[in-house]
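Q: Sequence in, structure out?
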Amino acid sequence: MMLPKEGDYFAKDGTAFKALDVVNTEAATPAKQTIENIIYSSGMGLPKLHQLEEFKKEKSEPIALIGGGPSIKTQLDKIKEFKIRVACGSVHDYLAENNIYCEYATVCDPDPISANYLQYSNKYTKYLVSTGCDKSVFDTLEGNKVYTWNCYSEELAKIQRELDKDDFRAIGGGCTVGLRSLSIALMLGYMDIHFFGFDSCLDVDNTHHAYDFSDKSEELGYLYKVRIGTNERMNQEKEFTCVGYHIAQAQHYKDFYIRYNKYYRATFHGEGMLQELVKTISKEEQKYKVKFGYEDRALESLALKPNGSIV
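A: Exactly. Output:
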């Protein structure tokens, strides 16, 4: 555990937590490999996301973005009520095993392991695959409806532009396939967005997903204890166990929300760290709206608090 310093916040057991203002992320796959993937996929002649007939056509019906967090195990019946669903990343096969097939499936991770979670690919789903994905992903999806898109990063933008000179477009939004899927949903014209399995934490029994890893090489990494709060009141009762990308996803969602919340309505299902952050955002928005007549201060005051300890 980190030694307490001035400005730290404390849980009832004396554990020190620090407010988190900045999150730095780094891709697990080397940029060189991702660039090779981009060059390969760009030469396949596949249709692009923005060539979908429904692209940028405003829609009133709700859409379900489905991540692989443990909470979806109790949300399957609710998910089945949605006509339009997006399987975000590795959750694809788990949904298929539970007789849930999606209008869309998004794939973003350049690691070949991504292909392991697409073994139940089908002719119905439209697979929206990042150009940075490994060749094995495209091989697994061969014969299905595959549309490509550029996953924006400053490091990759130059090569993406060179390969797509006529109509370069790239999608940002955050460090996970779930957050990029949110951007994609907005670009497809959806504004009523429901989030399932976006827990950004482990379950109470340290379950990482609603399903097992596909390969022994996959691992969680360091675990952190995290609390959600505001700069005015940091010590909340709820505490979550997270890995690094969980914290980054929550922080990036907060940043995305501050910029773009006027363009969509978000409903989060299940209980987790990100869901708790969204509840805190809502409470702070209402408090400042009543007190000051505007909401910006509420959003800017939110903070995450990892204690820096490995558990």
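The longest strand covers residues 145-151.
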